[in-house]
Amino acid sequence: MPLSPEQQAEIDAERAAPRETLRATAPGMERHLYTAIPVLDHGFVRVVDYMGDDAAICQAARVSYGRGTKSVSNDEGLIRYLMRHWHSTPFEMCEIKLHVKLPIFVARQWIRHRTANVNEYSARYSILDREFYVPEPEHLAAQSALNHQGRGETLSGAEADRVLRILRDDAGSAYDHYAEMISTEGQQGLARELARMNLPANIYTQWYWKVDLHNLLHFLRLRADTHAQYEIRVYADAICDLVRDWVPAAYAAFEDYRLGGAQLSGKGMDCIRRMLKGEAVTQESSGMSKGEWREFQALLDGPSA
Ligand SMILES: Cc1cc2nc3c(=O)[nH]c(=O)nc-3n(C[C@H](O)[C@H](O)[C@H](O)COP(=O)(O)OP(=O)(O)OC[C@H]3O[C@@H](n4cnc5c(N)ncnc54)[C@H](O)[C@@H]3O)c2cc1C
């Protein structure tokens, strides 16, 4: 269960007591404030607070240029220009604070993004809940033969059943031992900060994560990508939906230039120019390595290939 009844009641109370503000608000984001979006089997993403909107990006950019217009189409054009030219600081004027509940092995990937402010649930102070991520059967896959960092075919039949059983049994028995060690019934009880070391990496943790829009988009570009592990990608996908509602023009530009666009090397650009002139360019004549050429071909073939 992503949220306990007490947590849900707290959130409902926040939503039931709107506050007045003179600040600019983003109508799309107001709908998400204090609601939890379920992710994986026990996780969630929840917007705790945010600052700024599409207009704040333009306002900041126009201060640096000392001029500006105010129509929506001009704002969209300006935001696309900023995104196209990697003019990033205006996007840093928007911020978001999220409450995220996620398995520890996902948190380890997430925390590599250093440009955010984080405060994590303390397992030295509090007792962790008995909640473990166990993949849905369709996400239990074999090691990929092609990609050392990825998955291949989905596991099936008796093997899939056995794997699920092992995951559940190991997590359950590790948690039983955790509970046994910290118990103070008839014994001193081991400190929580020590007892937790026996818990598996699929146990859930929680944190508050505050980041500016520029660095959030960088995170989303890496983690909403098909190369990212499924278990972090689903969080990134949920956050993409939030950002789309929060700053629609910035998200549209991001989708176009970053998610949908691609960066080409000098050799890649040269190949495209030669192809447009009718030359049959091959890997050998491209000057690219086999790996680069494969990725270049995949780019030209498009996402459906
Ligand atoms: C598909 C995938 C596979 C990965 N595989 C591995 C792996 O096998 N092993 C592994 O260790 N990691 C791996 N990573 C993590 C990756 O190397 C980055 O650490 C992670 O994506 C964070 O990226 P970042 O540093 O750009 O982000 P952030 O930390 O958010 O930083 C954003 C940007 O700020 C700048 N910046 C931040 N801090 C500094 C600094 N101290 N000095 C200079 N510039 C800074 C950089 O320009 C950086 O790009 C993987 C990531 C992905 C997406």
UniProtKB/TrEMBL annotation:
So which cofactors does this thing need? FAD
Could you tell me the EC number(s) of this protein?
A: 2.1.1.148
User: Which residues does the record give as FAD binding sites?
Assistant: T89, R112, H113, R114, E120, D212, L213, H214, H218
Q: Which GO terms describe its biological process?
A: dTMP biosynthetic process; dTTP biosynthetic process; methylation
Q: Which organism is it from?
A: Salipiger aestuarii
Q: Where is the active site?
A: R223
Q: Which UniProt keywords apply?
A: FAD, Flavoprotein, Methyltransferase, NADP, Nucleotide biosynthesis, Transferase
Binding site residues for dUMP: Q109, W110, I111, R112, E120, Y121, S122, A123, R124, R196, R223
InterPro entries xrefs: Thymidylate_synthase_ThyX, Thymidylate_synthase_ThyX_sf
The Swiss-Prot or TrEMBL record describes its family as follows: Belongs to the thymidylate synthase ThyX family.
Recorded superkingdom: Bacteria
Per the record, what are the reactions this protein catalyses? Answer: dUMP + (6R)-5,10-methylene-5,6,7,8-tetrahydrofolate + NADPH + H(+) = dTMP + (6S)-5,6,7,8-tetrahydrofolate + NADP(+)
Protein's name in the database: Flavin-dependent thymidylate synthase
Record PROSITE patterns: THYX (PS51331)
Instruction: Give, as in the UniProt entry, the pathway in which the protein acts.
Output: Pyrimidine metabolism; dTTP biosynthesis
Write down a Pfam family by its short name: Thy1
The kind of enzyme this is, by top-level EC class, is: transferase
Quaternary structure note: Homotetramer.
The note describing how and how many cofactors are bound reads: Binds 4 FAD per tetramer. Each FAD binding site is formed by three monomers.
What is the role of this chain? Catalyzes the reductive methylation of 2'-deoxyuridine-5'-monophosphate (dUMP) to 2'-deoxythymidine-5'-monophosphate (dTMP) while utilizing 5,10-methylenetetrahydrofolate (mTHF) as the methyl donor, and NADPH and FADH(2) as the reductant.
- Please give the Gene Ontology molecular function terms for this protein: flavin adenine dinucleotide binding; NADPH binding; thymidylate synthase (FAD) activity; thymidylate synthase activity
